[in-house]
Design a protein that fits this description.
about 0% strand; about 80% helix; 7 helices; coiled coil; Helix Hairpins
């Protein structure tokens, strides 16, 4: 016969520790929950762009606080002048204290804003450099991959094949430019034959030109010259007929001499 062991006893009748059993139950419950709902996700790492945005928002807030304090300082200064004119010394001193308090707070804000601006500048520089580093890294990986795909020996073989093909193409072009058949005719003989043809053509043109009798040529020349001579003589005679009969002065005498010379040359 077997007897059931009490609750506080473990296997083989040994007493069990309640803390150990409780921890085991918690672990099993946690494992069941993790299996059902999955493991808890880790929080994503903060992006530098988000932090820059937050700092710029803080910068805008500092600007607004500075404008507000500057306004308060100006109001306190005006109130101190007003109380001083009213002979209220205590109120004037109080307003000056307020002004100093605002000024102190404003100087603190100036320092904070300067630190924020420096931090923003540093973070933007780091982000810019990081982006450039990532681009350089990707470029290096692409370059390395391209170099792995291209073999130097294969490139050299390709260039040798290209040079060989170009040389063959040149040889083919030179072969195609050669004159077909045997050409035994010399160029000097061709030039002599061309000169003979030109001479024959000139002789043929001279024979085809019409002959003009010498008598007709002379008569035509005489007919062409005769009217001009007559016209000149007629003009001179008309001028002589219309000349005045009054005594001739020295300039007119000179003209007469020139006229006589002209008529003498014409044979009148």
């Amino acid at each position: 016969f077997f007897f059931a062991a009490p609750r506080n006893q473990g296997r083989f009748g040994r007493p069990s520790c309640p803390s150990i059993s409780n921890s085991r139950q918690l672990l099993s419950t946690r494992n069941v929950a993790m299996n059902l709902f999955g493991r808890a996700k880790k929080a994503p790492k903060p992006k530098i762009s988000d932090r820059i945005k937050e700092l710029k928002e803080a910068q805008e807030m500092l600007d607004k606080q500075e404008a507000h304090l500057e306004k308060k300082m100006e109001e306190a200064r005006k109130m101190a002048l007003q109380k001083s004119r009213q002979k209220n010394k205590k109120a004037a001193i109080f307003q000056l204290k307020r002004k100093k308090m605002f000024e102190k707070r404003l100087n603190q804000l100036y320092g904070q804003r300067e630190n924020v601006e420096r931090l923003i500048n540093a973070m933007e520089t780091v982000a810019f450099n990081k982006a450039n580093i990532e681009k350089l890294k990707k470029g290096k990986e692409a370059l390395a991959q391209t170099i792995e795909e291209v073999d130097v020996d294969k490139v050299n073989e390709l260039m040798d094949d290209v040079n060989e093909q170009v040389a063959m193409a040149d040889e083919i072009g030179e072969a195609m430019a050669q004159t077909l058949g045997n050409d035994d005719i010399e160029e000097e003989d061709l030039e002599k034959e061309l000169e003979e043809l030109q001479n024959e053509e000139m002789e043929a043109e001279m024979l085809q030109a019409p002959e003009v009798p010498m008598s007709e040529e002379k008569s035509e020349k005489v007919e062409q010259k005769q009217p001009a001579t007559v016209e000149v003589k007629g003009d001179i005679l008309a001028e002589l007929a219309s000349a005045p009969s009054a005594p001739v002065s020295k300039p007119e005498a000179k003209q007469d001499k020139e006229l006589e010379a002209v008529t003498a040359s014409l044979g009148i």
